[in-house]
Design goal:
Elements lengths: L8 H8 L3 E4 L2 E4 L2 H18 L2 H17 L2 E4 L2 H8 L8 E5 L4 H15 L5 E5 H7 L3 H14 L4 E11 L2 H6 L1 H18 L3 E5 L11 H4 L1 H17 L7 E5 L10 H22 L8 E4 L22 H15 L4 E3 L10 H6 L4 E4 L1 H9 L5 H14 L10 H8 L8 H5 L3 H21 L8 H4 L12 H4 L5
Parallel strand pairs: 3-6, 4-5, 4-11, 5-6, 6-7, 7-8, 8-9, 9-10, 10-11
Antiparallel strand pairs: 1-2
Helix pairs in contact: 2-3, 2-7, 3-7, 5-7, 5-19, 7-9, 9-11, 11-12
């Protein structure tokens, strides 16, 4: 009963009576325990599966109730610039992609963070992941903020648009339309409470051009253009954390020359836009690089993952250069979750400011002995019927299902949410120690006050939906 969606706005208002004082400009929390009980479980269920008006209102209630309960969407920009100034070091923020069971997983990440005393964790979703997980920014952000309410999280909640990537093929066909698609997504995400956006125009780097800076030109020009757009839409008093990228994950390793070529061109392009607008436009806070990993790992014929060798020396040199030359927080590592656990110590040692993690957690869900076998079989039947065109020559079943099962999160979203509380709890019990271990190895444990010390809280006015305003007493 506790996870049933509300069927109407009136039913929702009645359930919130005595727990929330609802006004046009937001809510006051009258009973924090009541909010964290059945009410938030039903609100988030409605936010994901409810009918149109009930869904809009539940998303609004969660969005405004979270900061009222002390968990506020925030930018990590100031924190990373503090790292660039040397005010902290050897702490690598985990950025975790939650593809499915998002509410439960976000809660579990927060529980692990509480156990190790940290607020340094980013909740993110990539442009590509939105499609196959069927999570637009408003839904994803609402899941994370609902989890923060449920867990009594106090302080900043960093929600990030990961890999807002320019598609090279579409860019070649119509560069303006593809850039506009990334721009519109960034605007949508900011409106949803994403105050951290990673732009990836490294896909349009042209290695056939003569100099490294010329090779990076389309990358830095588009990144500057999108930075300008983000700055024009960010809430007053808040600087959205923007990331750039110089090397596509899975390609050859990045170099200092590429970093310099990108950053020098980017600074000129951004200054040109600042002069045109009449005000200074803040730049990026971090730079994503390639040092040997690939997204999701490389599955072998039996479904196990091939060993990956990360070039930590290159990562360290790039992070040092990003800080000393350009005052950024440092370099960002993608595609790292399938590395052996002992490798994570080295990211903090190398000075990486952030590391992106996704597939290993997905694997723990699907490979768990607690995951219902019939549901897994149904997922594999679906993949074989609907994604056979993605199967490569000589690929085994194990390899095919490994590389495609991420595509089940959207079509099977409701079945995953409908798993019994015991089943979901058992899977989360397996994930929690993994999150905790990674946080410890990345050096963010025992950093309790660091996030709040370098994060400015900005409360953003979120107007109530029309259907809610009509029910309020003038």
């Amino acid at each position: 009963m506790a996870r049933e969606a509300f069927t109407s706005v009136d039913q929702m208002i009645r359930a919130a009576d005595g727990i929330l004082r609802i006004e046009a400009e937001g809510v006051d929390v009258l009973d924090a325990g009541g909010l964290r009980g059945e009410l938030i479980d039903r609100l988030i269920r409605t936010a994901v599966f409810g009918n149109d008006e009930a869904q809009k209102v539940s998303r609004w209630l969660i969005r405004v109730a979270a900061p009222a309960a002390a968990a506020y969407p925030a930018s990590i920009h100031e924190l990373y610039l503090a790292c660039g100034r040397g005010e902290y070091a050897h702490r690598t923020t985990p950025a975790i992609n939650l593809r499915g069971l998002t509410y439960d997983m976000a809660r579990t990440v927060m529980q692990a963070a509480h156990q190790v005393d940290t607020k340094l964790v980013v909740f993110e979703l990539a442009r590509s992941e939105m499609g196959y997980t069927e999570q637009r920014p408003a839904e994803y952000a609402t899941n994370v903020l609902a989890a923060a309410i449920k867990e009594g999280w106090r302080g900043p909640v960093y929600i990030q648009g990961d890999h807002y990537q320019v598609n090279a093929g579409k860019y070649a066909y119509d560069s303006e339309a593809e850039t506009a698609a990334v721009r519109d997504l960034a605007v949508e995400a900011i409106a949803a409470g994403y105050y951290n956006i990673d732009i990836d125009a490294s896909t349009v780097v042209d290695l056939d051009r003569r100099t490294v800076r010329e090779q990076q030109e389309a990358n830095y020009e588009r990144t500057a253009e999108l930075t300008d757009v983000i700055r024009s839409r960010e809430p007053a008093g808040l600087t959205v954390s923007v990331g750039g990228e110089i090397g596509e994950v899975g390609g050859r390793n990045s170099t200092i020359e590429e970093l310099d070529g990108f950053m020098e061109g980017y600074r000129v392009a951004l200054q040109r836009r600042s002069e045109a607008s009449g005000h200074e436009i803040a730049g990026i806070s971090k730079i994503s690089v390639q040092t040997g990993t690939s997204h999701g790992g490389v599955p072998l014929a039996d479904g196990t993952i091939a060993d990956v060798s990360v070039d930590f020396d290159t990562l360290e040199r790039l992070s040092d250069a990003a800080r000393s030359r350009y005052q950024l927080g440092g370099a960002v590592q993608h595609g790292a979750s399938t590395l052996p656990e002992e490798a994570f110590d080295r990211f903090a040692q190398a000075g990486a400011v952030e590391v992106h993690l996704a597939t290993a957690f997905q694997n723990q869900i699907f490979d768990s002995a607690n995951f219902p076998r019939q549901l897994l079989d149904d997922i594999y039947v679906h993949l074989a019927a609907n994604h056979a065109d993605e199967r490569k020559d000589n690929q085994t079943d194990a390899q095919f299902y490994y590389t495609t099962r991420k595509r089940a999160f959207g079509p099977f979203k409701r079945q995953l949410w409908d798993l019994s509380e015991d089943t979901r709890g058992a899977i989360m019990d397996e994930l929690r120690p993994t999150f905790k271990l990674i946080m410890e190895r990345l050096g963010v444990a025992n950093s309790g006050d660091l996030a709040e010390r370098f994060t400015t809280r900005v409360d953003v006015d979120i107007p109530a939906p029309e259907s809610m305003r009509t029910k309020m007493t003038p």
